[in-house]
Design a protein that fits this description.
single chain, 249 residues, alpha/beta, Rossmann fold
């Protein structure tokens, strides 16, 4: 098992990429805290995984909730080796001047502030251990943006860049920080990203922009997260890894 004995937190783990990351981590021997605002969904995923997973309802934009997740990981597993900042949100694809202030604030809070809060909570633990892995889920939107998602694209540009800066600053502490940049994926946010109904015809238009001919799947992102959490990637930090079927070429 590639992650045997590791302790992890996966945010946004009640569905989509996060749920599959949690499943993959436990299959590879890790123990996982699944943090999600949807507490019932997180519990359903954890129950399906078994003894290696613990569900925790919480808001990634709340310092108290993020601190509680880190405390639960340390109290339950004795340490915290890996954090996957996966929780994310977007408004429906539309012209930039039609995005409300509330939508703008929510997007930045969930996609960017959450990582600030988690970093402040988990880095002191990892520094004491002299080791840790932080994996941020960015996006190809921060590398090759699509129209209609300007402010969302900006949040993912921030995630991509902050991952590099964090990697440089935390390397002396033995903490590796990497970023995964998925292309548009088969998740519950797909229709919001497209801005049109999720029909085979509309999907085909977006798939036509991806050289390998399909959208990303939760398993694609989970496999990359396993690699970046394990010893096989021990000399990688500050990497933005596009899991995108060639979209950003």
């Amino acid at each position: 098992m590639r992650l045997q004995g590791l302790s992890a937190i996966v945010t946004g783990g009640a569905s989509g990429f996060g749920a599959e990351i949690a499943r993959a981590y436990v299959r590879e021997g890790a123990r996982v805290i699944i943090l999600d605002l949807n507490a019932d969904g997180a519990k359903k995923v954890a129950d399906g995984i078994g003894a290696g997973a613990i569900a925790l309802g919480g808001d990634v934009t709340s310092k108290a909730d993020v601190d509680a997740a880190v405390k639960l990981a340390v109290d339950s597993f004795g340490k915290l080796d890996v954090v996957v900042n996966n929780a994310g949100w977007t408004y429906r694809n539309k012209p930039l001047l039609e995005v409300t202030e509330a939508e703008f604030d929510k997007t930045f809070a969930i996609n960017v502030k959450s990582i600030f809060l988690m970093t402040n909570a988990c880095v002191p633990v990892m520094r004491q251990q002299k080791s840790g892995r932080i994996i941020n889920i960015g996006s190809t939107a921060g590398l090759r943006p699509r129209p209609g998602l300007t402010w969302y694209n900006a949040t993912k540009g921030a995630v991509n860049l902050m991952s590099k800066s964090m990697a440089v600053e935390l390397a002396p502490d033995g903490i590796r920080v990497n970023c995964i940049a998925p292309v548009m994926g088969e998740t519950g946010l797909l229709e919001s990203f497209m801005g049109v109904p999720d029909t085979p015809e509309n999907r085909a238009k977006f798939i036509a922009t991806i050289p390998l001919g399909r959208m990303s799947r939760p398993s694609d992102i989970a496999n990359a997260c396993v690699y970046l959490a394990g010893e096989e990637s021990e000399f990688l930090t500050g990497v933005i890894l596009p899991v995108d079927g060639g979209r950003t070429i």
